[in-house]
Design brief:
single chain; alpha+beta; about 15% helix; globular
Length: about 450
């Protein structure tokens, strides 16, 4: 009996040891499995976080254009004052880099983002010598903007929700169709459409504050920026040159506002309207006699409307822009008598009371009906523009009839991929009968896209 008790105790002890060992092994395996899964999950989280940083926090992109143009008309300084002398001109060829832009953006989190665009315009040199047509035909040292590289955008944004975002810094003024959609893959012509590009700043960028948002099928944007400078207005470009500053800073004696509203309720159709209002007189470091000009404001008013339709291989666009300048007669007289030093940045030109631009284009993608073309597109298009940068004030003696122009453009755009386009076109400016028309052929290549996103 004694022997069996001892054996039973040993068996019990052995079985207990085996049970504890089994529990320990199972526990170890379970813990190891949990640890391994946790580490894998952590690695997945880190990997996902890294992917998120790469995809959404840092963005690097840009766009650029290179264009060759062969003109078949004279660009002589007296071509409008004595057009008969240049009727049979051979013209000339030229190459240009209209815009090359690098943009960098970053998402700081918690609704804070940053955006920037560094622009190299016409090769990056913004100090140039130009020949002024009609204005005594002299060479002028034009300073479009202080510095050789333009900072087109640099802003910080706080996003509260889709309906409310506040952007602060150097921003785009979204007035007009081209300012709102100025990438070279967003228009068919080799250069930006002439009308809007001529009468208003383009791309129009100022330092200010923007509030924007999307509510359903609607988008709105309201901005407050420094006003334009009437000392820089002229007959050939109306108020266009009033936005860039010839100094290392932008004078902001006057403030201006702009509002834009876009609607996307109808499928494939975008409709937009925009407006601008701001005083421009005495918005410079060169001030005038306070008593003599105390009631002169030089208020600039611009209104625009546009549409964009895309369906069944067709793209149809149209725009209308009208601008008015109060006190145009006084500003013209003041500008003509302005600083006459050799390197003065002021054009000393008359300026119109009104300016107008409207245009439209129709394009069709030949590859639309062909299967298995991938992203490739081949558009044939036609465009018409009418604009006049100098509609004179009442009583004006000088008319500048050459500022009224009709432009017809026919061309093709080939997109081997979505981000790259090769362009070719023939265009002709039609002026009033006493002047020579201005035909030209252009070919170009452009890109627009993100490198890191």
């Amino acid at each position: 009996m004694m022997y069996f008790r001892i054996m039973n105790k040993r068996v019990i002890i052995f079985n207990m040891k085996r049970l504890f060992l089994s529990i320990f092994v199972l526990s170890a395996v379970f813990v190891f499995s949990l640890t391994e899964n946790a580490m894998a999950a952590e690695n997945d989280t880190i990997r996902t976080e890294n992917q998120r940083v790469t995809k959404s926090r840092l963005t690097i992109g840009g766009y650029g254009e290179a264009v060759y143009t062969r003109t078949f008309y004279s660009d002589n300084m007296f071509r409008y004052s004595h057009p008969e002398r240049y009727k049979n001109s051979d013209g000339y060829g030229r190459v240009d880099l209209p815009h090359v832009v690098i943009n960098i953006g970053y998402d700081f989190g918690h609704g804070w983002t940053m955006g920037s665009e560094i622009e190299f315009e016409h090769g990056g040199n913004e100090v140039a010598v130009e020949i002024e047509a009609e204005e005594t035909g002299e060479f002028e040292h034009e300073i479009e903007r202080g510095g050789e590289v333009a900072l087109e955008q640099f802003w910080l944004q706080k996003s509260f929700c889709n309906a409310l975002n506040i952007r602060m810094g150097h921003i785009i003024v979204p007035v007009g169709q081209t300012n709102y959609a100025h990438l070279p893959t967003q228009f068919f012509t080799c250069y930006r459409p002439e009308g809007e590009f001529t009468i208003m700043p383009n791309t129009w960028h100022e330092t200010g504050v923007s509030i924007w948002g999307k509510i359903g099928k609607w988008r709105y944007e309201a901005v407050v920026v420094p006003g334009l400078n009437s000392n820089m207005f002229n007959n050939a470009n109306w108020v266009k040159n009033g936005a860039p500053s010839p100094y290392e800073f932008k004078v902001a004696n006057k403030l201006a506002g702009a509002l834009r509203i876009d609607n996307y309720s109808i499928k494939n159709l975008h409709i937009g309207v925009s407006g601008y209002i701001g005083n421009s007189f005495n918005n410079d470091i060169v001030t005038n006699e306070a008593d003599k000009y105390k009631d002169v404001k030089g208020t600039v008013l611009i209104g625009t409307a546009e549409f964009d339709y895309k369906a069944h291989g067709f793209v149809v666009r149209g725009n209308f822009d009208y601008g008015h300048l109060n006190d145009a007669a006084i500003i013209s007289t003041y500008n003509k008598n302005n600083n006459h030093q050799s390197f003065s940045p002021y054009p000393r030109s008359l300026v119109g009371e009104d300016a107008v631009a409207f245009g439209g284009e129709v394009a069709y993608d030949i590859f639309h009906s062909i299967r298995r073309t991938g992203e490739r597109q081949l558009f044939v298009f036609g465009r018409y523009d009418y604009y006049d940068s100098y509609i004179p004030y009442e009583g004006a003696i000088t008319m500048y009839d050459w500022t009224e122009r009709h432009v017809v453009t026919l061309g093709m755009n080939y997109y081997p991929i979505k981000q790259v386009v090769i362009k070719a076109e023939f265009s002709e400016r039609f002026l009033k009968a006493q002047y020579n028309n201005e035909p030209m052929v252009s070919v170009g290549v452009a890109y627009s896209g993100f490198f890191v996103r």
